Amino acid sequence: MTQAINIIVLPVLIGLLLFLIPAGFRFIKGIIAIGVTLITGFLAIRLFGSEDIVFSLGDWVAASGMQTPGLNAYADADKYSSFSLDGLSKLITLFISLLSLLIAVYSIMYKTAGAMRNYHAWFLITLGFSFGAVLSNNLLLFLICWGILGLTLYRLIRGNDETSSAAAKKTLIIIGASDGIMILGIAIIWRITGTLNMDEITLPTSDLVRTVAFLALLAGSFTKAGAFPFHTWVPDYAEKAPATSSAYLPASLDKLLGIYFLARITTGLFAVGEWLRFMMLTIGVITIITAVMMALVQHNYKRLLGFHAVSQVGYMILGFGLGSLIGVAAGLFHMINNAIYKGGLFLTAGAVEQQTGKEELNELGGLSRAMPLTFFAALIFALSISGIPPFNGFASKWMIYQGIIDFGQGIGIANKLWIIWLGLAVLGSALTLASFIKFIGGIFLGRQRKELSAVREASPVMWIPMLILAMGCIGFGVFATNQIIPRLFMPVTGVFEYTGIWDSSTVSLLVLVSIALGILIYLMGNLKNFRTLDSFVGGEKMQEETSFSTLEFYKSFQEFKWLAFMYRKAKDKWFDLYDLTRQFLTWLGRLFSRAHSGILHDYTLWVLAGLVILLLLLIT
Amino acid sequence: METYLFYFLIYPGFLFAAVIGAFLSWFDRKITARVQFRKGPPLLQPFYDFFKLLLVKETILPARGAKGVFLAAPVFAVFGATMAGVFILLPLMNITTGFHGDLIVIFYLLTIPSLTYVIGALSSGNPLAAVGASREMKLIMSYELTFLLVMAGIIIKSGQSIDLYQIIQIQREGSPFIGSFSGVLLFIVAIFCLQAKLALVPFDMPEAETEICDGIFIEYSGTPYAMIRLSKYMLFFILPAFIIAILMNGIKLEGIHILWAILKLLAVVLLLTLIRNTNPRVKIKQAIRFFFTWMNLLAIIAIVLAIFGL
Description:
The complex is a heterodimer of chains A (620) and B (310). Chain A has 620 residues and is an all-alpha fold. Among the domains of chain A are: 277 residues, no CATH class; 44 residues. Chain A is built from 25 helices and 5 strands. Chain A is globular. Chain B is mainly alpha-helical and 310 residues long. In chain B, 59% of the residues are buried. Chain B contains 12 helices and 1 strand, in the order H-H-H-E-H-H-H-H-H-H-H-H-H. Strand 5 of chain A pairs parallel with strand 1 of chain B, so a sheet runs across the interface.
């Protein structure tokens, strides 16, 4: 119990104290942040080994033997301060602390983050309230932590010019609005059940009111995780925020929290009906396809990653939409994997940005020799996110696919359409691969540019976290089927059997065998007798500006009529809920402003009309 | 572990697939020559080609590319082809011991060779290779969904089984899947997917010789190119073998059945060769449209037929 309280309170307290340290002592703040994340990491590991328990603040006070006078006065508040330690919350806590540790280390040398005021303070406060959200058992307490996280998200982006402050504002408004919707859902739950403790609530989604409550909470979870149609803040945020903030919140913590809450509401709070499953699966595939189609045509690499941060959520939603044990486990596994590789990808993007000072894909190229370690890490992350075996992204996608195929044996409408879910999920994976070819090819491969010849590898403080995450991708892939799933995820979901066949460890061993074989062939071959020459372009003279930019790669898709139409509309923000709402509100405002004609007659008329309406209301 | 290594490296993995694939590629070249009223190469020509590239030819590395990635890419191409080959050929050869992989695993492993070609091409820094890489990637995007729909059709026909071994058994007990309407349609779609996966005409735009000088492979020479040829040979065997496994009730390696096995294999390869010899290369946009509209439509018709048991 004490550890659970400490892990929440400690980062928040230290974070608040960091506000007192002057901005000049940035490095010291960074070191303190690392220290705190180390302690929380230690606590999270201790918590992971502890047993499941539900306790309130009062239980903790009683257990710790503190005798505070006047505590009885708060006895009623006790039921709102309920915490829960179970398999799911312990797992999420563990990964939150691991990822935050790596990002805290990276942040020390990352200048864009360092230049922000109180970055480390907000970082630690985010950490504490993330733990709070995951460990709280009471919906109200959860909502408070969740709401503060929306605020810290806003504070972790630098609003120093027009576009980035617009992105920050958009983020705050979307997240804030979703919190408002969640309050509605929680109020309905309170009205129906009379309790707000998650372990005491199980509701069917049989009638309209309960369905509305479910949808309200679902909207909150989707917004945090960044699923269609509430996803539009993620790409803007990713483009404008420092890479560490993107790696920290939208890429990893918000995914962990959003999907954590999704897991809570779909497997605990509500028994999800068939049509809602159908809806979730549909949203899942729409999220995958639309976001990845947008990613294909981006030219800012951070924005490209932002769209992928959206599209990957679709796979998790698919897993939870299936609702079977393997589906839920796959959703959770994909969430963890996504946090690892997406966090890592933002870190590599940050390293590239810092070392080159460029944010556009077409200004980069051929960096693999200058930044070999960053390139290696980025390649591993890219292959993982595209689901190439034997990396971790493949393992979780494989589970989702077999979950879908298994789901196809059922009799419902959603079950009968399994081929659609499967086909679009696999198509999304192929498109992901394509857009990461653009990312890797555009930044690291291709012809080395003269103007980038001075670029050097990022500092070890930056590449060590990246390589640790890359090792995580490899490790989670290699030991997926026989170690990771049974040890980490089956305790949470319950034991299940795979319907597919995939032995990740053997295959990984055979990868090593193949590499040895390849080296052997190279040794056998005539490799010593080599020359290096500039590119052969069919006998023409190779010129400095001769190139085929990766931006041109998928142009032919934009030439198809209906795709071109969709892209044009997407550019005009037809699919951006935020923008649509904004346009609607401006329209409404304009409508009302017409009443303000400045003519006295009109105003008297309005006053009179108001009086008549009031009178009518009072009479009836 | 020794048996695993044997399966992986010797039979039915690396060595076996490479040798059979080389012979099949000779068959392909011979048929092509006969179609064009030429004499054609001798039986061992693919081996001559391979060893000449491996042992004699000079290797040229791109001066301003990523040399490490450039050299590593063919290794992983060979890995992808071998691994997929083992997973396809073990059930096909009726070897029940050893490791298995389901259809999803095979599906994903089969994309690895194409992916490594793309990465290798991009690492060379050659603009023509980049054109080829872009086309290859677009081709992957177009046929991936179609190929998956073929798999889905097979999964439906076999009663939601994704185990290749079981799929072959189900066909042995009943009739081969190709013996139904949906099976025929799936076979047609699968053949076109193979054509694209093997980058044969009409879908050879990633390596269009006359236009972008072999595109994705333009910078490859000597030993690394030998490995690429090797992976191509292997794919030329395992992809037709995969079709035989999922649609034509596999093969048996005893008595007269060996002859049947060889005939089935040659028939599929002959089909691929004839398509490639009687068609012109299409543009990439035409290929995208072909797969996205027509092949997907055909596959969906096949799936609907399969749901109704036809």
